[in-house]
Amino acid sequence: MKSIKIILQVFSIIILFGCNKEIPVDKNEKLNVLFIMTDDLNCDLGSYGHPQVISPNIDKLASQGVLFQNAHNQYPLCGPSRASFMTGMYSDQTMHTTLNVDIRTTTPDVVTLGQRFRQQNYRSVRIGKIFHYDNPGSIGSSSSDDIYTWDYTINPWGRDKEEEYKIKTLSERQYGGTLSWMEADGSDEEQTDGIVATEAVEQLEKFSKNGQNFFLAVGFFKPHTPYVAPKKYFDLYEKDDMIIPYTGISEDYLKSIPVPAAKSIRNKKDQIKLNLKSNKELSQEIKEAYYATISFMDAQIGRVLDKLKKTGLDKNTIVVFSSDHGYHLGEHGYWQKQTLFDNATRVPLIFSGPGIEKGKKSNSPVEMIDIYPTLMELTGIDSPDHVVGKSLMPVFKDSNFKIRNSALTRWKNGYSIKSEKYRLTKWGENGQLGYELYDHSNDKEELVNLAKNEDYSQVLDSLKKEINVRIADARLKPKGLGRQFEQRQYNRIKYTPGDLYDKDGKRIYLKPSNE
């Protein structure tokens, strides 16, 4: 009798887990997840009210779900930000504050987002950049990926990487951390992000046929530098229409903010020349290239979403769209990320799919670490105890609901909170390096520091209490996390295809850009 019972139990397990491939798409009650992550994308999108950027596919996705207008990353740099949203923890908890740090060297026992789906018999697949990648240096490799997160990974390599030597740049052979751009020849499908989309389409086709539940993470490399897109996307814009802000670049302005804040917007020495109006044409050329790259990337997202709908998988798939951090385009006299201004902390965040109302917008302060627990609740999976983010489900039901009063971002020795109306930034452990206070009701550009304005003394005192509580909470070791270690960074050697190097690794030949 006991043996018969065991046989029946085994048979039940086979039915439950072994026959997923026979479940038709429209009969599968478990929700899948399509997780779309972009690189260095700010909120310059049509759905976020930008008057120039052409992003019809992202805009359509926003119209079909909930758009968060006040979402912020936890560290405005690729590696630390990605470590946070993939674990649901703050950078003080991941021990991640720089690039090229593998997540298992700091938190070896953590259960990542994709890993948690694997634990529930989902197929976890990565295409492109989800954890940190030196972009474009590590394109084609797994870079700082985590092998425990995925069942299967794909590392595209496209024409943009093969023709890297042709790219314009402010510093010779510098691309990833330096402003660089190119109008590319050839088709979308030849570019790395075009291949990302093609691979995603193929994966969706497979899932539509085998009925396997999936967590499909599609990581686009754009619009990160170098801004490379086929020429037709540059043709969507007029260079002369690009508006370059010249506020926030004077010495008087720099003296009005704490020294660490001033240093953060002057740490890219090769970009300082873009502050000069005599270089306006160059600045416009660079900004046009960034917008062209957004439109190119948007078109690739459209290909993926079209396939999702064509297969019928859209009926039981949650779609999440976001970016690892924001991006300056000349605001405060600065380009790129790594500041505690809204330009660098704010990210686009859209949820769409079954059970999520269409066409809603929320100004509730939310954080990227909220993605993890939200997906867990949507799919009916318990979150690991170490996840400190908060589910956004209450906001889906009521767009005015606030799950917290402020969103917290850290950068080096500074912390910043963004509420619905204000931003407060604290520099130094006890604020000894200064504070910044901005009132978004009349200063969305964050150019007037009110920290010493007596009319705002009560607001300042209140926000100081809040930020201290937020910082203290973010430093607590989460329950169930396991081991924590200080980060161990390593530098990656980067090569441009076509160049030659001697036995000591010194570049001895640069492939001409006209070849």
Mean pLDDT: 93
What is the fourth-level CATH superfamily? Alkaline Phosphatase, subunit A
Biggest sheet features: 9 strands, mixed
Helix fraction, binned, reads 25-40%
> Low-confidence runs (pLDDT<50, min 5 residues)?
1-8, 10-23
Give the C-level CATH assignment: Alpha Beta
What does this structure look like?
The chain is built from 16 helices and 20 strands. By secondary structure, the protein is an alpha/beta fold. The protein has a single domain (29-404), classed as Alkaline Phosphatase, subunit A (3-Layer(aba) Sandwich), CATH 3.40.720.10. Strand 10 (328-329) and strand 11 form a beta hairpin. The longest helix is centred in the middle third of the chain and has 32 residues, at 280-311. Mean pLDDT is 93; it is low at 1-8 and 10-23.
Task: Summarize, please.
By secondary structure, the chain is of the alpha/beta class.
Features:
515 residues, alpha/beta, Alkaline Phosphatase, subunit A, nine-stranded mixed beta sheet, four-stranded antiparallel beta sheet, globular, disordered N terminus
